[in-house]
Amino acid sequence: MRYFAALREALGDGEEVELPEGSDLAALRDRLIASSPRHAEALARGRALRCALDQVLVRESAQPGDGAEVAFFPPVTGG
User: Fold this and answer.
1) pLDDT, tens digit (0-9, with 9 covering 90-100), for 9-28
2) 28 and 39 in contact (C-beta within 8 Å)?
3) Backbone phi, psi, residue 54, to 5°
4) Which one, 25, 33, 39, 72, has the greatest CB density within 10 A?
5) CATH number at residue 69
6) Which residues, given as ranges, of the chain have pLDDT below 70?
7) 45 found inside a domain
8) DSSP letter string over 15-79?
9) Structural domain of residue 64, as residue ranges?
10) The predicted structure's pLDDT at residue 77
């Protein structure tokens, strides 16, 4: 897991998360939201966020494989 822009400021650079096989990024986001109040605020369902899987923009229905890099970030980020 990697976080960028305002998410990195709120949650740090990233973290390692294990998911059950067949989980998608929506399930990962929900799991993170449930993990702490800080995550719940930063990743709330009402917030527009983009996600990437191995540096390719994807929808939350994408399923990460073992060892995949997942990133969450706001829709617009600076350089």
Assistant:
1) 999 999 999 888 899 999 99
2) no
3) 50, 45
4) 72
5) 3.10.20.30
6) 77-79
7) yes
8) ------TT--HHHHHHHHHHH-HHHHHHT-TTS--EEEETTEEE-TT----TT--EEEE-SS---
9) 2-73
10) 57
